[in-house]
């Protein structure tokens, strides 16, 4: 059964006259009668009672009811397909690490939604391992997270590189630097030796988080083992506890900017010290699978990520 036969049948059913229906469809009466005959043969029922006036049989009445619904759905399919093709409608399944969402999504999503108001966004947040697995299984279209992204067949573009900072309660800073304002100022500007904080309590992200893995690798090169007070999945929880003076934590540079912290100013309860050296540098990337279909809206989001990466200037 094809849509044309249904459409021609429906026109004849509504006009109740083959001549009028054929004229409306810009086809011959013979052609219209042939389409209706094919439909009757396919269904095995008579659809019209032929006579001076064209009249639907019971089977014709039932088919006309369903045909209207089918043709309405066909028009809806054509409309949605056109909107998808024109990038007006679609779906974006976005995977973001727990630690990236706060800093990146307020920059990316408002601009994307303004350009694509009808695109449905499905947001999945997870740790490094979860994100890689979701991308590998095709459960997300785009991944934004820390390098490395270990998914065979994925195309990866680095968005920015950033440094890790120590977020240290002021009373701990005073203990470490002994009230030496010059040394404290230099540490804020140029960085500090992580080993100076031996004996201070640390509040860290749990294993499986890429920032934690970066810190562990960095500390390992220094032969330093943090004294861990507690671990959390949420970087904002770690920062909030540090602000209450419970311990030292690690905070990425991009998130520090998003926080609008004063980086050691008088209004802050924390000192922020960059960790020097390449080992404290991390790369944030956008990734997607090279194979398979990618909707136009997904391609637009990937392009937006690449364009916006220059705005952070890290």
Question: CATH superfamily name of the largest domain?
Answer: Periplasmic binding protein-like II
Q: Assign an overall shape.
A: rod-shaped
Helix content: 40-55%
Work out the helix count.
12
Average pLDDT score: 85
Distance between the termini: 60 Å
Taken as a percent bin, the fraction of beta residues is: 15-25%
Structural class: alpha/beta
Poorly predicted sequence stretches spanning 5 or more consecutive residues: 261-267
From the structure above, extract its key features.
single chain; 314 residues; alpha/beta; Arc Repressor Mutant, subunit A; D-Maltodextrin-Binding Protein, domain 2; seven-stranded mixed sheet; 11 strands; 49% helix
Any overview of this molecule?
There is one protein chain. The protein has 314 residues and is α/β, with parallel strands linked by helices. The protein has three domains: 3-85, Arc Repressor Mutant, subunit A (Orthogonal Bundle), CATH 1.10.10; 92-160 and 285-312, 3-Layer(aba) Sandwich (D-Maltodextrin-Binding Protein, domain 2); 162-281, 3-Layer(aba) Sandwich (D-Maltodextrin-Binding Protein, domain 2). 49% of the residues lie in helices and 23% in strands. The protein has twelve helices and eleven strands. The strands form three sheets. Strands 3, 4, 5, 6, 9, 10 and 11 form a seven-stranded mixed beta sheet that branches. Helix 9 (210-222) links the parallel strand 7 and strand 8. Helix 1 crosses helix 3 and helix 2 crosses helix 3. The longest helix is centred in the N-terminal third of the chain and has 28 residues, at 58-85. The two termini are 60 Å apart. Mean pLDDT is 85; it is low at 261-267.
């Amino acid at each position: 059964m094809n849509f044309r036969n249904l459409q021609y049948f429906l026109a004849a059913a509504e006009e109740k006259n083959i001549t009028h229906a054929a004229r409306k469809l810009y086809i011959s009466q013979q052609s219209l009668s042939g389409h209706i005959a094919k439909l009757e043969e396919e269904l095995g029922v008579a659809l019209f009672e032929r006579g001076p006036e064209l009249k639907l049989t019971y089977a014709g009445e039932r088919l006309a009811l369903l045909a209207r619904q089918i043709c309405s759905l066909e028009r809806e399919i054509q409309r949605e397909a056109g909107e998808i093709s024109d990038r007006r409608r679609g779906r974006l399944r976005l995977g973001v690490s727990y630690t990236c969402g706060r800093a990146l999504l307020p920059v990316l999503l408002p601009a994307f939604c303004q350009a694509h108001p009808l695109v449905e966004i499905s947001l999945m947040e997870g740790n490094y391992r979860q994100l890689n697995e979701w991308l590998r299984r095709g459960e997300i279209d785009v991944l934004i997270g820390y390098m490395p992204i270990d998914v065979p067949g994925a195309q990866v573009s680095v968005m920015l590189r950033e440094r890790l900072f120590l977020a240290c309660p002021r009373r701990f800073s005073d203990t470490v630097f002994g009230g030496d304002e010059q040394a404290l100022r230099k540490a804020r500007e140029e960085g500090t030796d992580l080993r100076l904080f031996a004996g201070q309590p640390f509040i860290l992200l749990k294993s499986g988080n890429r920032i934690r893995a970066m810190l562990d690798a960095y500390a390992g090169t220094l032969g330093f083992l943090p004294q861990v007070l507690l671990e959390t999945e949420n970087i904002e929880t770690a920062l909030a506890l540090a602000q209450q003076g419970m311990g030292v934590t690690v905070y990425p540079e991009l998130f520090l900017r998003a926080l609008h912290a004063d980086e050691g100013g008088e209004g802050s309860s924390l000192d922020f010290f960059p960790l020097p050296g390449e080992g404290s540098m991390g790369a944030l990337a956008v990734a997607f699978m090279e194979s398979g279909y990618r909707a136009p809206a997904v391609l637009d989001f990937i392009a937006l990520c690449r364009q916006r990466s220059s705005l952070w200037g890290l």
